[in-house]
Structure formats: structure tokens, C-alpha cells
User: Fold DUF4442 domain-containing protein from Gemmatimonas groenlandica.
Amino acid sequence: MPRANPSPGRLLLRNWERFSALPFGKRLFSWAVGRTAPYTGSVGGVYTDVRPGYARVELRDRKAVRNHLASVHAVALVNLAEMTSGVALMTALPPGVRGIVTGLSIEYLKKARGTLVCTTTAHAPSDVPAPITHDVQADIANADGEVVARCVVHWRLSPPDPSRESAQ
Assistant:
């Protein structure tokens, strides 16, 4: 069974730096994130900016993400928020700290149409001596800059596992 990467944020940032400057590099990075977390890749969002504690993802409005009301589906929006918050938080965490989503709450403020942009700024704790819950907010805006949905992603953060570090 493959072991989890002890510093996924560092790997994400390294890959972003390597790919983002290349032609189609942002799409390649987004594809790679989607291969790592396959359901995340199903929405088709493209990372357009990644920095420690920050991620920005664009989602094109297309038939595959629409509902019967001709707007972007609620589940596509929550998926977009989760994928954005994940990269933002992972790139902000101290090495060895692990995170997993334990819940989401989302407000749908208006119909989501057109190209959408989700942004997340994650302020991670500098030390995680014991498991904690940490909330990260992701805002989704339309082309006019109006927030169409606001999501709070609840993460469970766990301290580094000493037995895992010694096995590496």
C-alpha cells in the first residue's frame, strides 16, 4: 500500500513552479492534481495561481457541469471549493502535518453562470501538536466579481506521525 507524502504542500509548490510557466503548464498541473485526487479532477477546474496558503481555480461553464436550470450545478460548486481549499491549505501546512476534509458547509448566493473563479487564502497553524479542526473559506465569484457561493471546508489536521518519519 503506498504511503502518504509527508510534505504534499512542498511537492505541490514545486510542481506548480515547474509546470505553470510552460505552455499548457497550468492545465498539466491541474490534471496532475486531478490524477492524485480523481474526483477532484472530474469538475475540470484549472489552477491559475498557487502560492503558499493561496489557490485560485477557474471553472468554465459547460454542459458537463450544468444543472436543469441552466446554471452550474451545486455539487460542481462544492467540488470546486474543496479542490481550491485543499491546495491552498496543503501548501500552507508545516511538513508532516496531515489534513482530511471532515465536512463542508456552503451558501449558494445566486445562480452560477459563465466562467467562475474560486479563491482560497488558508492560514494554517504553525504547529499542530494534537489533532484539531481547522476551517478554510473558499469564495466562488462570477465574471462580474459577484460572489455566487461561499464555502467553509472543515479540515481535521493531525500532527506528524513519528513512526512514519522514522520509516522514511
In short: The two ends are 14 Å apart (CA to CA). Residues 8-167 form a domain with the Thiol Ester Dehydrase; Chain A fold (CATH 3.10.129.10). The helical segments are 8-19, 25-36, 38-41, 74-90, 162-167.
